[in-house]
Amino acid sequence: MLPRCLLVTPLLALALTIACGGGGGGGTAIRMSEFKFEPATITAKAGQPVKVTLQNAGTVVHDFHIHDLNVHSPKVQQGQAQTLEFTPSRPGTFQFVCDEPGHKDAGMVGQLTVQ
Fold first, then answer.
1. How many C-alpha atoms does 26 have within 13 Å on its Cβ side?
2. What is the pLDDT of residues 77-89, one digit of tens each?
3. Whose CB among 70, 89, 95, 98 lies 3.0–4.6 Å from 108's, allowing a Cys bridge?
């Protein structure tokens, strides 16, 4: 039988990994659907890598772009996910959008705040 501390340590590590959004700097999950991002606001720090998992929960193709930071995802098909990594170079408030025709106009926009 294993000592109790050997059982608790891996469980604690797993709990911390889940609570902090995963390993390797964590990340943010963004759910995309018609016609919104959830959450619609995210924050990051200038000069630090950002990892975003884009989950398309909608019925049509979506994508994710932050034009002012030259961040662009490929198209994400219905029911699929795509991980996007980038490092914001400067602080500020930046709009992210879905560039599929009509989606931005329908309200599929969000905001990234870089501190």
1. 10
2. 999 999 999 999 9
3. 98
The pTM score is 0.77
Residue 87, both tokens: 């490092």
Instruction: Read off the DSSP letter of residue 100.
Output: S
- Does a cis peptide bond (omega within 30 degrees of 0) precede residue 35? yes
pLDDT at 14: 32
81 C-beta neighbours (distance < 10 Å), count: 15
Please give the CATH architecture assigned to the domain spanning 24-114: Sandwich (2.60)
Alpha helices in 38-107 (DSSP H): none
Classify residue 20 by its DSSP letter. Answer: T
Q: Please determine, for residue 19, whether its predicted confidence score (pLDDT) is greater than 50.
A: no
pLDDT at 98 over 60: yes
